[in-house]
Write a structure and sequence with these properties.
Strand order of the largest sheet: 3-9-8-7-6-4-5
Helix content: 40-55%
Radius of gyration: 21 Å
Number of strands: 13
CATH superfamily of the largest domain: Type I PLP-dependent aspartate aminotransferase-like (Major domain)
CATH topology of the largest domain: Aspartate Aminotransferase, domain 2
Number of domains: 2
Number of helices: 15
Structural class: alpha/beta
Order of helices and strands: HEEHHHEHEHEHEHEHEEHHHHEHEEEH
Oligomer: single chain
Largest sheet: 7 strands, mixed
């Protein structure tokens, strides 16, 4: 493809307000960061518990490098399955109260790996319409008959299950916390339907792990549904402050993935320093429940304040606060206006969200102070007046 064609296409993207560019963060990930030379408050990160720059995680990584070196050197099935990986999987299974767990390099690897390893052309996947892109791609790679049900609509899900072929396996897959709307999947009702129609249930706990549940185990733990969910996926790069992901479930599930999940088999293992850092993060999640409490307290303050300014936050019931603006260009104007006032929160536009629902995705952390929250609300108040939307 010639350069001129790409230039023309990029011009169209810019004109529509959908152009994206990478911004350089020049400091550690924290409640406040240095963004391209400017100190700003960070309200667009998934570092919900503020662990990405925690001294205990950094110390664990340094000690692991001294012991194991920097890289794993190979895939897990060759020579890259190091003792620290096995220790981490044991701890993750304990967190999720399952028999076993398996670590993947990213959440994307985990979702495409599980779905393509478990399901095939003779099977049926039932997927929520707002599931993460990695789930969508995993469904495609599986070559299963994928039937998409309306978001969180269990009546529609029931209709699709009833119409499934009598042969083959059926699997219902859903996020537990939806990343762009912040609302929660109706897991209790989904499980009831799964048992009625003999379907497996897979729950993506990427945005719930470390945040929901009395021990940070996720929404599945909070609802007491561990025994009912066949497959749990979680990430290590959000509330746990590192990078990577895992799948938790039965011994048989994990053994099957080791043998059949291509995104696990054919990739280098996560560095031992990362695995060690996650272990330190799990210690903090277990020993400092007050971090979750501070996160929820900060979320309430920010949500109440934004609503009092006249902003709409949709149906969120989580730490993800979608400030719905509407059109893409207007959304980016608000994002620019709050950034000028020292608050960095991303504008989210199509195709990530539907046309006409562009938003500022605001995500507080446990480490934000009351002053941070007040300054952010002031920035949104001023931006609304400047843009003429509030």
């Amino acid at each position: 493809m010639r350069k001129e064609i790409l230039t023309a296409r990029l011009a169209e993207v810019k004109e529509s307000g959908l152009y994206r560019r990478l911004r350089a963060v020049e400091s550690a990930q924290d409640a406040a960061i240095i963004l391209e030379g400017q100190e700003v408050l960070l309200f667009s990160s998934n570092n919900y518990l503020g662990l990405a720059n925690h001294p205990a995680l950094k110390r664990a990584a340094q000690e692991a490098i001294e012991r194991y070196g920097c890289g794993s050197g190979a895939s897990r099935l060759i020579s890259g399955s190091m003792a620290v990986h096995h220790e981490l999987e044991h701890r993750l299974a304990a967190l999720k109260k399952t028999e076993a767990a398996l670590v993947f390099p990213t959440g994307y690897h985990a979702n495409i790996g599980v779905l393509s390893a478990l399901m095939g052309p003779d099977d049926t996947i039932l997927s929520d319409s707002l599931n993460h892109a990695s789930i969508i791609d995993g469904c495609r790679l599986s070559r299963a008959d994928t039937r998409v049900y309306r978001h969180a609509d269990t009546e529609h899900l029931g209709e699709l299950l009833k119409a499934c072929p009598a042969t083959g396996q059926r699997l219902i897959v859903t996020d537990s916390v939806f990343s762009m709307d912040g609302d929660l999947a109706p897991l209790t009702e989904i499980i009831a339907l799964a048992r009625q129609y003999d379907a497996w249930v897979m729950v993506d706990e990427a945005h719930a792990t470390g945040v929901f549940g009395s021990h940070g185990g996720g929404l599945v733990e909070e609802l007491g549904l561990t025994e009912e969910v066949d497959i749990q996926m979680g990430t290590l790069g959000k509330a746990l402050g590192c990078v990577g992901a895992f799948v938790a479930g039965s011994h048989e599930l994990i053994d099957w993935l080791v043998n059949r999940a291509r995104s696990f088999i054919y990739t280098t293992a996560i560095p031992p320093a990362v695995a060690a850092s996650v272990l330190a993060a799990l210690d903090i999640v277990e020993q400092e429940p007050e971090r979750r409490q501070r996160l929820w307290a900060n979320t309430r303050v920010l949500a109440d304040g934004l609503r009092s300014l006249g902003y709409t936050l949709g149906t969120t019931h989580s730490q993800i606060l979608p400030v719905i603006i509407g059109e893409a260009c207007e959304t980016m104007s608000v994002a620019a206006a709050i950034l000028q006032r020292g608050v960095f929160a991303h504008g989210i536009r199509p195709p990530t969200v539907p046309e006409g629902t562009s938003r500022i995705r605001v995500t507080p952390m446990a480490t934000h102070t009351q002053d941070h929250l007040s300054r952010t609300l002031d920035a949104f108040a001023a931006a609304g007046k400047e843009i003429g939307i509030r």
